[in-house]
Amino acid sequence: MNIEGAVVLVTGANRGIGAAFVEQLKKRGAAKIYAGARDVSALDGEGIHALELDVTNPDHISAAVRDAGDVQVLINNAGISTGTPLVSGPEEQIRREMDTNFYGPLLLTRAFAPVLAANGGGAILNLVSALSWFTSPGDGAYAASKAANWMLTDSTRLELASQGTHVVGVHMGLVDTDMVRGLDGPKVSPADLASAALDAIESGEQEVLGDDWARFIKSGLTLEPKARYEQILGAVAS
């Protein structure tokens, strides 16, 4: 489908990748952009329709469906990372990551699937991560939530095919946002990632590998775990 003339909802639109999506949508001529965020005061109102939207809040999701019934593209971008390990980390932090990174996109997809069907099928784009395919000791909760998001993406692609909804998953390593400001390594720009993701909606691609790290990680998925992690740790060390 074409982004030009489309009605799009972006979650987590107030900063980082979400803000980059909003700017790229403007450049591509989207007819209407719903910008969802927990704090709408942080949204630049020019050219957007601001929605108070905490993706973990069912009342906010219901209100979004009511107020944005013309949506044709849903971009599930909102996410968090708490740096919580699975065994020793606080359970409430693990649940917080799962609620935001998995249940949030799931509940929004369930809520907006009938809307997309009524508006011609449309598209759903999920911001996943290369960390859906590997982990490190401090990233257990985040990786688990993103692995669940990856399977959410595959499952909804199959379940919504009959209504003509195109589902895209975006995998990437480090993106130059506040979330990874203190980490070293190559970082893809939010604008470049958002542009590649929107290209996939327009071309019909189902998966976006947003940088070299995502491509490298995916290339090792057929390896046994020991060999796969040796390869990953070797790349990190170099």
How would you describe this protein?
- The protein has 238 residues and is an alpha/beta fold.
- It contains seven helices and seven strands.
- A seven-stranded parallel β-sheet has the order 3-2-1-4-5-6-7, sandwiched between helices.
- Strand 4, helix 3 and strand 5 form a beta-alpha-beta unit.
- Helix 1 packs across helix 5 and helix 2 runs parallel beside helix 3.
- The longest helix has 28 residues.
- The chain is globular and about 50 Å long.
Provide key terms for this protein.
single chain; 238 residues; alpha/beta; seven-stranded parallel beta sheet; 7 helices; globular
Quick one: how many beta strands? 7
| Oligomeric state of the chains present here | single chain
* Alpha-carbon Rg, integer: 17 Å
Fraction of residues in helix: 40-55%
Report the span from N to C terminus.
41 Å
Task: Sum up the overall morphology in one term.
Answer: globular
Order of helical and strand elements: EHEEHEHEHEHEHH
Brief characterization of the structure:
Helices cover 44% and strands 13% of the residues. The chain is α/β, with parallel strands linked by helices and 238 residues long.
